[in-house]
Hints:
Blueprint: E1 4-10, E2 16-17, E3 33-39, E4 74-75, H1 80-86, E5 90-91, E6 95-100, H2 106-117, E7 123-127, H3 132-141, E8 149-153, H4 157-167, E9 171-175, H5 192-209, E10 212-217, H6 230-234, E11 237-242, E12 249-257, E13 265-271, E14 274-277, H7 281-286, E15 296-303, E16 306-318, E17 326-329, H8 333-346, E18 354-360, H9 372-384, E19 392-394, E20 397-398, E21 404-405, H10 410-419, E22 424-428, H11 432-435, E23 443-447, H12 450-457
Parallel strand pairs: 6-10, 6-11, 7-8, 7-9, 9-10, 17-18, 19-22, 22-23
Antiparallel strand pairs: 1-2, 1-3, 4-5, 11-12, 12-13, 13-14, 15-16, 16-18, 20-21
Amino acid sequence: xxxxxxxxxxxxxxxxxxxxxxxxxxxxxxxxxxxxxxxxxxxxxxxxxxxxxxxxxxxxxxxxxxxxxxxxxxxxxxxxxxxxxxxxxxxxxxxxxxxxxxxxxxxxxxxxxxxxxxxxxxxxxxxxxxxxxxxxxxxxxxxxxxxxxxxxxxxxxxxxxxxxxxxxxxxxxxxxxxxxxxxxxxxxxxxxxxxxxxxxxxxxxxxxxxxxxxxxxxxxxxxxxxxxxxxxxxxxxxxxxxxxxxxxxxxxxxxxxxxxxxxxxxxxxxxxxxxxxxxxxxxxxxxxxxxxxxxxxxxxxxxxxxxxxxxxxxxxxxxxxxxxxxxxxxxxxxxxxxxxxxxxxxxxxxxxxxxxxxxxxxxxxxxxxxxxxxxxxxxxxxxxxxxxxxxxxxxxxxxxxxxxxxxxxxxxxxxxxxxxxxxxxxxxxxxxxxxxxxxxxxxxxxxxxxxxxxxxxx
Length: 458
């Protein structure tokens, strides 16, 4: 009989300890240790085919030139925005993790995807949180009715494995990973051990049986997917479904993708009949701009391979207290403070006694260097009470000496600005040669420093 021993595991990060600790020494979280039993490893002779990893039969190292590469077998989800984030469609045999806040629309999105996929292929939707009746009610609201979509309300992984072996579905949906239970483990459902083992089992099912698996993951208060961080390392693709509770728009963002570009985004709008794709996010972000308003500048930001135009707003007012406040929504506060310091030192603006409030409209989050120039222009416009031309947009990174530095993918950015009707774009001078190919129909203004840009504008 295998010997077992007691150990304590942090539910936040998976750290193991021989004794109970109030605070985890690895992630510094309080009251996260739970008691678990660890048994010696044993090999089961009754392992099903999906529990055994297949081998290639090659036991010797191969030269790189001898290995044949094959193109991924992708299936379109019939949602262009989701296909873009996945890198062109769902890859056969991949494991995709979808995380998001409660009520954001994760189950709705996956049920709509299942409805489209089940038109031609077999889909098994496993729910550990809702009954089949609840899922049926949602499906009726979304007008989903397919003969090849199967609903299975179960949390026992042994039962799920049996159904997968019998049905051999093309797609498997697990909603959610934190409710699944591996009966062989003596651990609480949703604990680090359970989540890790269930994910490992789903990975074996995906790779051995060549089934595309979508897994829903809960999100912690800090915004990360609940469970050990190794969960994100094990899967092929990690997607985050984001959105504000008071906004109808939802953004799905690729954080990790072994079959495509990371940081790609897709946009949806939540409606009564479900999630609808937003084909042109830039138009949504710019739709409600006020004419002749100060403190507003438009930037062309790259999200993965997609250029998006976003309005940045700034409000600069004299402070009523000793220390000026710096508040931002959708922007990095440290980046804002750095740009304001450069504006004061290199641009000649007295901002140390001014409160500054900045926002990226539409609920989007921007964190790339190319947005620096637009932030600086918005701040200067609000400070000087002078408006910016409605057809101007700004691209460029600002250095600490006030120089405007080169950015990547300048041609794609200019093309998107021109397509949306902008007449003039301010870019770094070092990007001038690359931008000339896309200059037809839009004026290119190269700038060297922040002082030069402010002189042109004001």
